[in-house]
Structures are given as structure tokens and as C-alpha cells.
Amino acid sequence: MTLTVSDLIVARGGIAVLEGVSFTLKSGRALVIRGPNGIGKTTMLRTIAGLQPPMAGKVDAPEESFAYAAHSDGLKSMLSVEENLRFWASVFGQSDIDGAVQAFDLEDLLPRLAGALSAGQKRRLGLARLLVTGRSIWILDEPTVSLDTQSVARFADAVRAHLAAGGSALIATHIDLGLEGDVLDVGPFKATGHHADPAGFDESFL
Ligand SMILES: Nc1ncnc2c1ncn2[C@@H]1O[C@H](COP(=O)(O)OP(=O)(O)OP(=O)(O)O)[C@@H](O)[C@H]1O
After folding, report:
1. What Pfam families would the database entry show (predicted)?
2. Continuous segment of H or E residues that includes residue 100
3. Fewest beta carbons less than 10 Å away: which of 41, 84, 122, 129?
4. Which residues neighbour 114 within 8 Å (Cβ) at sequence distance 6 or greater?
5. CB neighbour list of residue 135: distance below 8 Å, 6 or more residues apart
6. How far is CA 37 from CA 34, 100, 120, 172, in A?
7. How far is the CA of 21 from the centre of ligand 1 (A)?
8. What is the pLDDT of residues 56-108, one digit of tens each?
9. Quick one: pLDDT at residue 19?
């Protein structure tokens, strides 16, 4: 499954933040997105994942191939860790949660309410969710925030296994995950201010 992004312009609050973004991400590959705070990495990832419309350009990928994970992981705080994983697995038509539990060392946490987890534990659960989606293109926004060293290593292993199984990953991160992969610095795509959409009030961030 190949993701092709062509001449993409992404906007926040109706104002272009990145323009002319083009790249291809093939099966089995990771692409790390780099750039300073506020340049538009989150906006770009949300646009590619289909959570907000592009101002211009195209995102081509097979339908229903994306799994997106960011800060608000959509955890159901009143459900247990196990119930959360089973819920997502059923949403995505899967039934097996064991691989996800093992990959993120969640065994001991299975009966705990998601809302009562620490920040790092919540993040591990949010990342474990990726594994139960069965989706092939992972779009990850700062996935390692709050993770301890061991959990970062586990996460990197999970990404490696995903790539080895033919998946791919687009990852905005400031840290070096030690993954073999390509790096895209979005600095050169900073918008020049020519693209503004006066009607483009950006409700997706409310
Ligand atoms: N609700 C909003 N409405 C309009 N503009 C916003 C809104 N929230 C953030 N912005 C601006 O949009 C731009 C892009 O933000 P974005 O979160 O995509 O950057 P980022 O590269 O992911 O940053 P970071 O590395 O800090 O996470 C920034 O200049 C930011 O200040």
C-alpha cells in the first residue's frame, strides 16, 4: 500500500501553514517528519489522515488504510484497559488483542480504568490501539511523549515489526527512534502567506 502526497497545502484557522508538500511512502518504510515547533507538522498529519480537508493538493492511499495516533488518543476513561482494546478491535473488525497487550506490556494494567492510568501508561494504551486496528499506514504525532526509555524501545520495536509485516509509518517526532527510514524536513515547505481562505474558519480544532 503506497501513500502519495502531491503538492499539498495544509491550513490552520484558514491560513496556509505548509505548502507544496509532496512525497511517497511505500509499504515497509517509515518516514520521520521533522521541523521546529509550530511549523505545521500536526496540521499536516491530521490533513493526511483525513481529519481535516487540505487547502489544495492530493492525498492518495487505499481507503481505510490509516491509523492515526496523537495526544488525545480517544481513550474511554470509564472503560478498563482491556475493554478499551476490545472496543477498538471490534470497531476495526479485529478480535485479537494479545499482540497489542504484549507489545506494550499492558498485561498487569488490563483491569485498570483507562482514566486512572499515568500519562505514560495512557500513551502505551493509545499506541497499543494501533496494533488492534489492523490498518497498514500508521500516522503518529509525537508518539513517544511521556514514554520512559524502555517504552520508547518497545514502541520502536512495534514500528519495526509493523514495517516488516508490510505496513508503513509517518511519524512526527523530535527524538531519534533508531529506525531505519527516511526523514522529511518540512522547513522548506513553510507557507509564504499567499494562500489564505477567508471562509476557512478551522472548526476541526475546536
Ligand atoms: N486553533 C488554531 N487556530 C489557528 N491556528 C492555530 C491553532 N492552533 C495552532 N495554530 C497555529 O498553527 C500553526 C501550526 O501548528 P501545528 O500544531 O501544526 O505545528 P507543529 O509543527 O505540529 O508544532 P509542534 O512541534 O509544537 O507540535 C502554528 O503556527 C500554530 O500556532
Report:
1. ABC_tran
2. helix 98-103
3. 122
4. 75, 76, 77, 78, 79, 80, 81, 84, 122, 125
5. 64, 65, 66, 67, 92
6. 9, 31, 22, 11
7. 17
8. 999 999 888 999 988 766 789 999 999 999 999 999 999 899 999 999 999 99
9. 97
Which residues form the pocket of ligand 1, taking CB atoms under 6 Å from any ligand atom? 12-13, 17, 35, 37-43, 202, 205
Provide the CATH number for the domain formed by 30-54+62-179 in this structure: 3.40.50.300
Beta carbons of 3 and 170 less than 8 angstroms apart: yes
**Quick one: cell of 161?**
515489526
Which secondary-structure segment (H or E) carries 86? helix 81-91
C-alpha to C-alpha distance for 17 and 104, rounded to whole angstroms? 34
Helix (H) or strand (E) holding 183: strand 182-185
What's the rounded Cα separation, in Å, for the pair 47 and 68? 11
Instruction: Give pLDDT tens digits for 22-62.
Output: 999 999 999 999 999 999 999 999 999 999 999 999 999 98
Query: Which atom belonging to ligand 1 lies closest to the Cα atom of 174?
Result: 25
Residue with the nearest Cα to atom 23 of ligand 1?
Answer: 38
Taking the model in full, what pTM does it have? 0.90
CA of 65 to the centre of ligand 1 (A): 25
ipTM metric: 0.92
Sign of the torsion angle spanned by Cα atoms 79, 83, 85, 86: negative
